[in-house]
Amino acid sequence: MKILVCISKTPDTTAKIAFTDNNTKFVQEGVQWIINPYDEWYALVRAIEIKEKDPSAVIHLVTVGGADTEPIIRKALALGGDEAFRVNKDPQDSFDVAAQIAAIASQNGYDLILTGKETIDYNNSSTGGMVAAILDLPYISLATKLDLAGNTATLNREIEGGEETVEVNLPIVVSCQKGMAEARIPNMRGIMAARTKPLKVVEPVANEVKAEVVRYELPPAKAGVKLVSADHPEELVRLLHEEAKMI
User: Fold this and answer.
1) Which residues of 53-68 are buried (b: 16+ CB within 10 A; e: fewer)?
2) CA-based, 20 to 30 A from 196: which of 128, 211, 217, 241?
3) Residue 242 has pLDDT above 70, yes or no
4) What top-level class would CATH report for the domain 2-219?
5) Does the pLDDT at position 57 exceed 60?
């Protein structure tokens, strides 16, 4: 069993976000970077659980980015990845990321490609589907459970108004979300071992950029809060009738 886990670098949710060049570029200086939680907590940890049941399984990691992504990928190795690939490119859009991941995948013959359901910066939720389309593989999105029996995978996934169970033959691409696994913390042994695990830097394949950032915009500032004394419920009723807005 060969598993490829896609790893993204994202800003910590507490980081202060700013833009420059007329709001067309994201200011990266001073931002705390982390592994995208959906990639780490669900995709990577589920791969580790599979390997714990089948020690012959191999877990490879892949990320697309510059040298500044290496601390992120080393943490993923510390959690339980066996080796990693870093495609040496500043990705331009989701398709660019998918094309680079697909190139790595096509060269190594993976049985299972796992991604988080989305990244917490752009929330596109599109890369996994694009990887599957490029590789002409089945794609199961929003999976909450994954079981393997030989060459068959059984997955649960969320659908509108309920849950769906799917059986599919490997190889497949799966995007993972809450329910797939429980988050883990790397231990000291894993941290020490990660220092010597292979991290291969590969050059990107040629790819046509499909999209470009026109501008960024911060959400509007939150409005103030009005406090109503418990002794005056009639004022609360008035505010709800006259000033409250439907969202």
Assistant:
1) eeeebbbbbbbbbeee
2) 128
3) yes
4) alpha beta
5) yes
